[in-house]
Amino acid sequence: ARGSPAGAKAEPPGSGVIDVGAQSERWAAFQKRHGLSGEEAARLLLDAYEYRGLVKHTGGCHCGAVRFEVWAPADLHVFNCNCSICTKKQNRHFIVPASRFKLLKGADNLKTYTFNTHRAQHTFCKICGVQSFYTPRSNPDGYGIAPHCLDDGTVQNIITEDINGKEWEKAVREHKTIRDMSKP
């Protein structure tokens, strides 16, 4: 670190000390202007870098017991599946990696329904019954997000793609990108 005696060890990564060098005054002014702690300011910086080109969407269930945030494009690629459960629930969704999804509240209000292979985890609010997100069979390492459960203001456009969930194995095998949608 600047100004440290010769031979002094630098703080190890994750120690909580951030040396921003010549940007220290700017960093302090930014934190003060926005009322942010060092961790909050660092999170904003990391989010801006890691999620370039993405928008932070927020959303949740009908009653508000379940709330989440998700980083995804402003233009959403939504799947309209015709499998038995998606048809009954009108489950249109877009897929994101788990690293871009954060449950803000309501873990204790979630219930899960599975059937057939039990790979898809259909989560829903136990109070109002709304499924605002779930873990899709095609991407068990990610989330399927219901665009109609997002708060207004961050979605610019929705492009819908029909997928033949009645013949799920064939549809996923033939689809060029669906299995990679949950990869960071």
Automatic annotation (TrEMBL):
InterPro entries: CENP-V-like, CENP-V/GFA, Mss4-like_sf. It holds the Pfam family GFA. One of its GO terms (molecular function) is carbon-sulfur lyase activity. Keywords: Metal-binding, Zinc. Gene3D superfamilies: 2.170.150.70. The keyword Metal-binding applies. SUPFAM superfamilies: Mss4-like (SSF51316). Signal peptide: none annotated. Residues 57-169 form the CENP-V/GFA domain. Belongs to the Gfa family. This is CENPV protein. It comes from Ploceus nigricollis. The lineage of its organism: Eukaryota, Metazoa, Chordata, Craniata, Vertebrata.
